[in-house]
């Protein structure tokens, strides 16, 4: 057994997230202290509107933090130049896809943009990374298709392939399994699990598939009205973190099965 301490890829200190307008400050969550290590698959769960996307957007610098510090690979997130940041962090948002007219091969190749020169000329290394990303996500038979021809599940795999081609130590995905059937939800989450394990990348994703996340994640972040809990799924089940996620008038969390049950 390898007992070497794992490197911390992302660390937050007293982070507050939310929205600032001229008139008011809307704090969505405060005092967020997280340490995500290399090779970890981390699921982010919570009720609708609790702040999962806000947290992911803040961690990827799409929106500013209200307070606190975010360290990515030992460097403060704020101090990265855009191109450097793109070699450290990739984000997969299903809803925003620049051009569905691109072929799958072209979309995956976009992941190499931070590394190619100003005319976008690809080197051996870029071609190799694109090939690897296509192999590992099993999308070889889709490469010539245009993105508008893909099903939601296929598009999801292609977007993950683009993030893999980007070859960053940290990957974030906002609800990567929305619109998928139960088989393909499990398929995508197992793919993420395998990637984190085999490539030692840190993968953080938001999801409403709480039972799958409990089964597959190394760690989970549970956001609720009172703040958030962070730890291994088993520990979170034991400390009843999932029971406080939703009002208990309709559903109850069953700690034995790790699932929600409808009240009879
Ligand atoms: N651009 C914005 N300006 C102000 N408030 C916002 C903005 N975007 C989201 N919010 C508010 O922030 C809160 C958290 O929203 P967020 O989208 O982060 O939740 P979520 O957990 O991702 O929800 P869901 O599971 O429904 O996707 C909500 O109350 C929402 O209304």
From TrEMBL:
<keyword id="KW-0410">Iron transport</keyword>
<dbReference type="InterPro" id="IPR003593">
    <property type="entry name" value="AAA+_ATPase"/>
</dbReference>
<keyword id="KW-0547">Nucleotide-binding</keyword>
<keyword id="KW-0472">Membrane</keyword>
<dbReference type="InterPro" id="IPR027417">
    <property type="entry name" value="P-loop_NTPase"/>
</dbReference>
<dbReference type="InterPro" id="IPR003439">
    <property type="entry name" value="ABC_transporter-like_ATP-bd"/>
</dbReference>
<keyword id="KW-0408">Iron</keyword>
<dbReference type="GO" id="GO:0016887">
    <property type="term" value="F:ATP hydrolysis activity"/>
</dbReference>
<keyword id="KW-1003">Cell membrane</keyword>
<dbReference type="GO" id="GO:0006826">
    <property type="term" value="P:iron ion transport"/>
</dbReference>
<dbReference type="GO" id="GO:0005886">
    <property type="term" value="C:plasma membrane"/>
</dbReference>
<keyword id="KW-0067">ATP-binding</keyword>
<dbReference type="Pfam" id="PF00005">
    <property type="entry name" value="ABC_tran"/>
</dbReference>
<keyword id="KW-0406">Ion transport</keyword>
<feature type="domain" description="ABC transporter">
    <location>
        <begin position="10"/>
        <end position="250"/>
    </location>
</feature>
<dbReference type="GO" id="GO:0005524">
    <property type="term" value="F:ATP binding"/>
</dbReference>
<keyword id="KW-0813">Transport</keyword>
<dbReference type="InterPro" id="IPR051535">
    <property type="entry name" value="Siderophore_ABC-ATPase"/>
</dbReference>
<protein>
    <submittedName>
        <fullName>ABC transporter ATP-binding protein</fullName>
    </submittedName>
</protein>
């Amino acid at each position: 057994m390898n007992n070497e301490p794992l490197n911390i890829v992302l660390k937050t200190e007293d982070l507050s997230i939310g929205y600032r307008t001229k008139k008011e400050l809307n704090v969505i969550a405060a005092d967020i202290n997280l340490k995500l290590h290399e090779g970890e698959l981390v699921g982010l769960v919570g009720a609708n509107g609790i702040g999962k996307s806000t947290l992911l957007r803040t961690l990827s610098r799409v929106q500013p933090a209200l307070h606190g510090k975010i360290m990515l690979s030992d460097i403060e997130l704020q101090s990265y130049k855009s191109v450097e940041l793109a070699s450290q962090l990739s984000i997969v948002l299903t809803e925003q896809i620049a051009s569905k007219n691109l072929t799958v091969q072209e979309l995956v190749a976009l992941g190499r943009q931070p590394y190619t020169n100003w005319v976008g000329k690809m080197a051996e290394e870029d071609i190799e990374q694109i090939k690897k990303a296509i192999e590992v996500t099993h999308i070889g038979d889709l490469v010539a298709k245009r993105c508008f021809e893909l099903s939601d599940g296929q598009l999801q795999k292609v977007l993950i392939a683009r993030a893999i081609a980007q070859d960053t130590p940290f990957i974030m995905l906002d609800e990567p399994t929305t619109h998928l059937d139960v088989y393909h939800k499990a398929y995508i989450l197992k793919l993420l699990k395998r990637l984190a394990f085999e490539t030692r990348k840190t993968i953080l994703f938001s999801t409403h598939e709480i039972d799958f996340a409990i089964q597959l994640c190394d760690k989970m972040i549970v956001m609720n009205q009172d703040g958030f809990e962070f730890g291994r799924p088993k520990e979170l089940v034991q400390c009843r973190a999932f029971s406080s996620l939703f009002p208990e008038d309709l559903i109850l969390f069953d700690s034995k099965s790790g699932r929600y049950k409808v009240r009879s």
